[in-house]
Amino acid sequence: MPDLERLAVEHSARAAESPHGRSAHLVLHDGVLRQTVIALTAGTALDEHTPPTAGSVQVLRGRVSLTIAGRRVELSVGGLEPVPQERHGLLAHVDSVVLLTAVTA
What we know:
Elements: H1 4-17, E1 22-30, E2 33-40, E3 45-49, E4 54-61, E5 63-68, E6 71-76, E7 80-82, E8 88-92, E9 96-103
């Protein structure tokens, strides 16, 4: 298995260099299961999008908010939250790295 700490360091650096302030790496793709490391610089957001069938977000570094219908659910290091089953986004309050686990079928 990949080293998540190494990936967090690597993709934090890539996000810092990116004009979009983000970097992602697909860690695991096994049938309908996908796990992705996503690094975001402070203030960077992933726009609202349609949810997968099921999933979770775990914060590996930093502090983020899931944005859902005008409200926010804040998460910090170690926080784990199910992906809402409605349109949602993600906002990094500080430089952050999350592990997104998604079931796509």
